[in-house]
Amino acid sequence: METGKETELQRLWSLLKKNRLAFSGLVILCIFFIIATAGLILTSGKDPVFDPSIVRLQDKLRPPLSKVSKDIISRNQWPPFGIYIFGTDDLGRDVFSRMLQGAWVSLSVGFVAVGISVIIGIIVGGVSGYYGRYMIRLNQIIVGVFMLMIMIFLIYGSIILASLFFAGLVMV
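RESULT FIELD:
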């Protein structure tokens, strides 16, 4: 193999590095993946470092970086470092630990949705390519109907929800 010849992977990597927007998106996705993985490790297991399920009613609605009520809460229920990094919610649960847990859940949902979309896209694209222009036209009509429903809801959604609310069909 010649040393001056690039492999396909090297060529794609150089193209990605040239496109600043795509490369910054990759960096942000990697950072989010690292945070979500660290969150999974830190919030699960027998003795998690950040336990999102502990309810501390004495410390409800604390602001970010506030200290624990040390005289009321036992030592084993203290958050790490003795402070609430992002504060607490209305039940006294640590918002930072819940955010770490939610990051992994949202990343998992995103990857599953992308995987399902890829599978559906491959199947629909293969069928359209095999059967030709009639199937392509049918797919365009189906996609157009879905896009029309989305656009109608975006344009008139607030009016529809307001009328349903005042009719008593939707509760807030």
